[in-house]
Structures are given as C-alpha cells and as structure tokens.
Design goal:
single chain; Nucleotidyltransferase, domain 5; 2 domains; eight-stranded mixed sheet; about 20% strand; globular; binds adenosine-5'-diphosphate
Amino acid sequence: MNILVINCGSSSVKFQIIRTDLELIEKNEDRRLASGYLERIGSQSLITLQVEGQPKIKQAVPIRDHRAALDYILRWIVSPETKINGISSLADIHAVGHRVVHGAEKFTMSTLINDEVIEGIEDCIDLAPLHNPANLKGILAARELLGPGVPQVAVFDTAFHSTMPETSYLYAIPYQLYRRHKIRRYGFHGTSHRYIAYRYRQLNGIEREQVNIISLHLGNGCSACAIQNGESIDTSMGLTPLEGLVMGTRGGDMDPSIIEFLHHKEGMTLNEIDAMLNKQSGLLGLSGLTNDMRDLVAEETEHNDRRARLAIDIFCRRVKKYIGAYIAIMAGTDAIAFAGGIGENSAEIRKRICVGLETLGIILDEKLNSTTVGGKEGLISKPESKIKVFVIPTNEELLIARDTVRCVKNVPRRW
Ligand code: ADP
C-alpha cells in the first residue's frame, strides 16, 4: 500500500509517502517514496519537496490554509513531472495516516477515522489548543480532496503513554480536578518513544516485554520516557508539552507560583505569560540568543559566550536529573537511547549529559560517540558500561504509516 503520512502544525504541513504492507513490515522493507515540508502557511509559503533519490526542490508559493497546502501536495504528487515510483494518479494513494497530538484518555491506540473519531479529537482541543485544530484541518482536507473512500487513520502522540500508572500520571492537586477536568499527565512524543523502543528491540534481538530503557527525544521539543517491560511507565511532558526538560523555547519544570508572581510584578496577562512560557523560554530565554542548540554550541566554543554555556549546562543538567529519577523508579535500566535533532547529532551534548554518571554505570565511548552523528544508529558506550547508551534516529512517519496499514487491515497493535 502507498500511505500518505501527514503531520499538520499550526502553520506547517510535513508529509511523506511510504510504501508498506503487513509483509513489508515483517521484513522491515517498507520504503519512503517522497517527502516534503510546507512552512509559513497563511502567507508566502516555503516549500521543500523531494522524490526519494532525487535532489530537493525548493519553492516559495502563497498558500492560504491547510486545505490549500494539501491540495498543492496532491497536485505535485500526481504531476507527470514528479514521477514517484508506482504513483501516477490519486487512486495510487491507498490510505492516509495523520499525526494527532492529543488523544487524552479517549484514544489509547491508533484508530481508523470516522465521524465519531473526529468528534473525539475535537473534544480534546481544550487540552491541545495549539495542535489538535491543525491536525483536524489536515484530516478534513484529506477527506475532502481524496474522497471518503480513502481510509484515514489517526496516530496519537499521547497513546504510547496510556500505560502509565496513576502514580505517574496524577498531579498532587485535589483529586476532583482530575475527575472533573481530566487534569493529569498525558505525555507526548509517544510515537517517537515507541519507535525508539521498537528499534532497540530489533538491535538487541529481544522481545517487546524485555525492553527496559530510558528514551530521550531531544529536538526542539524534548522529552524523556521510562520504558519498562516495553511500556511507558513515566514521561517528562505533562498535561501539555510544557513540562519536563528544557527545550528550544519552553522552560520545562518550574514553580507554578511564577505565573502569579509575574502577573503582579509585570502586569502580564495569562495569555502573555503562556506565550512567554511556550515561545520565549528554554534555551532561547536563558541564552538571549537562539533556540538552536547548534548555534549555542558554536557561540560557546567560538566566542566563549557565558549565557550560551549556561543555557547548555542547564539543559544537560535537567536531562541528567531525569535519567537519575527514572533509574530510581525503574530500579535500574538496561540502556539509554538518544534521539531527536540534538540527541542524534550532537556528540558534545550527549557527552555533557553522560559525564559524571559513571557511578551509575554509564560510560561513553568517546570515539563511538563522536562518530555516531548525522542519522547513524548504534551503540556509543564502552563494553564495560553497565547501562548501554545508544543513538537511535527516530522515525515517527514510519510508525504512522505502519499503524495506518494495521488499522486499515484491522490488525491494530500497540507497537
Ligand atoms: P523538532 O523537534 O522540531 O522535530 P529536531 O528534532 O529537528 O526538531 O531538532 C532540532 C534541534 O536539533 C535544534 O535545536 C538544532 O539546533 C538541533 N541540532 C541539529 N543538529 C545539531 C548538531 N549537529 N549539534 C547540535 N544541535 C543540533
């Protein structure tokens, strides 16, 4: 089957076309045929398109909204000049898989989309006002442009974490607030943590139930996940993606009193504080320079910038704290896996996170660490390291495509 995987953000659409099927999944022979990214939707949009094995095409085109973005993508896919292997008309797209950020307690697995599921995703908007509306726009546009005959599947960022016990997901606030409003930790990046667990299992030739690892997704958004017996038992993001690790523009854990304090001292409204916590904090807020880890590392090494160093040090210390915390609640772990733009590419940050953890049995191999970058996968710890350390480049799109096939064929499974 040719699966169109769609990931709609508030002003962007990412897509991939992946050829997969139950047999191809089994043999790990599914393959990406094309991909693309449309950003700045709503104005002059920047578009990057690529047929696998061919050079990238970059364009700037005005794109009004998500529907127009999808229309543009579909026209490109079937255009005679594009020539994607085995695809000449829309009939060659057999199903669509959507990333949906919040599934709350309603959706604990990927699911075939019907009217009831759309209503369910709408019901979760309160919990993810920035993300779910964009995801819904993608679903409705795909249904309109491809017709109701093409099955669509929703794959939720929260689903993998639905196995967390109450002791992990409840906040210590009055219990009625959980009952009344479902205020609890949901966690995000679930598809990424699930992929990391899946690849770890493959790399080590073990069963799902034998996966005991701490997975670290460090990108623009960052989260840690404690995976025990193959299930997420705790994760650092919470009701929203604001909690936990230091991220590009989000600060992660902090004292909630800061909100009231700021309101009084700076006269900021709740909306302004929310925007500050989501968009002006984290690495950007600390450094005053950038949310981009690559640039921060360059500022530190080339200009000895104090605030860049501080931002990086606080980022690494927070990850370290979560590693320690998760080792404690899991009563030990077999491995730590790094993923995401930072986790996959920055040997320097991985080193700074792991240094000092030797007493816990974590010993990096400097050479392996420095050469496992740019999309490479593998072990980066020394043989004597009690806890192994891996780099596992994540691939959420692949899991979305596979889940889509499984839901369409009515053989859904957790991972
Ligand atoms: P998103 O969460 O938006 O998918 P990515 O996973 O692509 O983001 O991660 C983006 C982050 O990865 C940015 O902070 C970027 O600077 C960082 N990054 C990418 N390459 C490197 C590198 N070589 N060194 C340090 N940081 C890097």
